[in-house]
Design goal:
Length: 349
């Protein structure tokens, strides 16, 4: 045999060995390396009409329903859902590729967080996707220690668990699936704020004018201090001063990037919730936003009402259509700013 023929023969044998190795792996594992966990799901995403998120103990976390225009959360009376969060998780599931096969022994599921959800100590979250045909259901478990972009999963009802590519952001409660954005009106757009407490005083804050308005400057303020205060606090008692220059700025900026913690129907306030604390924000371009705060036994709740003239009227109508009819729980630091009293802004006397 010539040297050239020998080289060709060896090359052919090497190729055959590679093919045999691939076929052997497929035969042993029943899959090609990096194959999709759920083949065909990506092409079916637009057909999904319902997503059920279930937690430990088979506790319902959220039922997400696709409507004509948007997604809603059933457990929160049909409040709009966080579409970006839904999209992230659906794409992560549709694009998840198998890295390696893991245990099929139920005794070891807990290590990966993929045990059945009938256990109250389960660590996983189950996603069930419904499109009117056969539902797709997956238990999303833990991420491997020290890993990035990998997750343990198990197709519900199947014994085999897998390590797959992708990360998931499933939350632990139904409120995690709500559309959280409420308002985004920066302090730079605010002209004035008035917070009225029933039977008590009204806290008034206004943008500092170009020329010094002596009636708004706190007692003993220097020119340097005044420059630090974009918003000035009115009616500071004689002999008292603000806790620091610009303390009103935080109140004026509370509507910037304002996000909810929870949303409930208006009925949660009951027939007679009492008089609320009302914060009235007026912008430089004519938009008015009023927040009403009711202090209930289980926490403070807020409602929103907007109005405006000219160009601001359309913005007000959009806000009312989105926020009207709902009662909101807000982060504690935002709640504090929206219910401030004058004495809370003063230095100790």
């Amino acid at each position: 045999m010539s040297r050239r023929a020998l080289v060709l023969l060896l090359a052919a044998l090497a190729i055959l060995a590679v093919i045999a190795g691939v076929l052997l792996r497929e035969d042993q594992n029943g899959r090609r390396p990096e194959e999709l966990l759920l083949p065909g799901l990506k092409e079916q995403l637009n057909a999904i009409q319902r997503i059920v998120v279930t937690g430990p103990g088979n506790t319902p976390v959220a039922t997400l329903e696709r409507g004509t225009d948007d997604w809603t959360v059933t457990e929160h009376s049909g409040y709009p859902a966080d579409v970006a969060r839904i999209r992230r998780n659906l794409l992560a599931l549709a694009e998840a590729r198998i890295i390696e096969e893991k245990t099929s022994n139920p005794d070891y599921y807990a290590r990966l967080g993929v045990q059945d959800l009938n256990s109250t100590t389960a660590a996983g979250i189950q996603l069930t996707l419904e499109d009117g045909k056969e539902p797709v259901s997956v238990i999303v478990g833990l991420a491997p220690a020290g890993s990035s972009g990998e997750t343990y999963v198990r197709r519900t009802g199947e014994p085999t668990s897998w390590l797959v590519t992708g990360t998931f952001d499933l939350g632990k409660s139904g409120s995690d699936w709500l559309a959280r954005d409420l308002t985004d009106v920066p302090a730079g757009r605010i002209q004035s704020v008035a917070i009225s407490h029933p039977g008590l005083e009204t806290l008034r804050i206004a943008r500092r004018p170009a020329a010094t308005a002596t009636s708004m400057v706190r007692t003993g303020a220097s020119a340097g201090d005044e420059e630090l205060a974009e918003f000035l606090v009115a009616d500071v008692p004689a002999g008292r001063e603000l806790s620091y220059p610009g303390v009103g700025n935080g109140v004026a900026g509370v509507l910037a990037d304002l996000r909810l913690e929870n949303a409930e129907p208006r009925a949660v306030l009951g027939a007679n919730p009492g008089k609320p604390v009302v914060a009235r924000f007026v912008t430089t371009d004519g938009l008015v936003i009023e927040t009403s705060a009711w202090r209930l036994p289980d926490g403070t709740r807020f409602t929103f009402l907007a109005s405006g003239e000219g160009a601001a009227s359309a913005e007000a109508a959009t806000l009312n259509a989105r926020l009207g009819g709902w009662v909101y729980t807000l982060p504690s630091f935002k709640t504090e700013q929206l219910t401030r009293r004058l004495q809370e802004l003063l230095a100790p006397g």
